[in-house]
Amino acid sequence: MPWVDQNLCVGCGVCVDECPVEAITQQEDRKAIINDDQCIRCGKCHDVCPHDAVRHDSERIPQEVEVNVTKTRELLKHFKTPQEQDQFYERMIRYFNKEKKVADLTIAKITDMKNAISKGK
Ligand code: SF4
Ligand code: SF4
Fold first, then answer.
1. Cβ of residue 19 lying under 6 Å from some atom of ligand 1
2. Pick from 73, 76, 98: which is nearest to 86 by CA?
3. Which candidate among 15, 20, 85, 94 keeps its CA 20 to 30 Å from the CA of 6?
4. What residue ranges of the chain have pLDDT lower than 70?
5. Whose CA is nearest to atom 3 of ligand 1?
6. DSSP letter string over 9-55?
7. pTM of the model
8. Which tens digit of pLDDT belongs to each residue from 80-103?
């Protein structure tokens, strides 16, 4: 999923004009923002941005990990005893393991879809 680095965007609007599904809007300061729900992942905004402001999703990994860790810390406050806290940590680990499994299985299925297209060529 592409995203716009607000520090690099100069608000030129080139990406807005190129987006085929009008998923990009400009804020009051003219800087661009992508609507994740509307984006069809075509990559055009990344290709046309003259300032490299449209960034790859992978660059957000550290930030997203931090969000998860912060959320875990906040939820931990609801559990007082060491036993409750231990059980809570286990639940969070199970939750993120489930997320990992969903991602792995999704990747496997999408790869199968891609390979099926390649074979059909
Ligand atoms: S093309 Fe790049 S610099 Fe111009 S508005 Fe879009 S993201 Fe910002
Ligand atoms: S990837 Fe394509 S659909 Fe998504 S915001 Fe960029 S130009 Fe629009």
1. no
2. 76
3. 20
4. 121
5. 9
6. -----HHHHH-TT--EEE-TTS-EEE-TTT-----HHHHH-TTS-EE
7. 0.81
8. 999 999 999 999 999 999 999 999
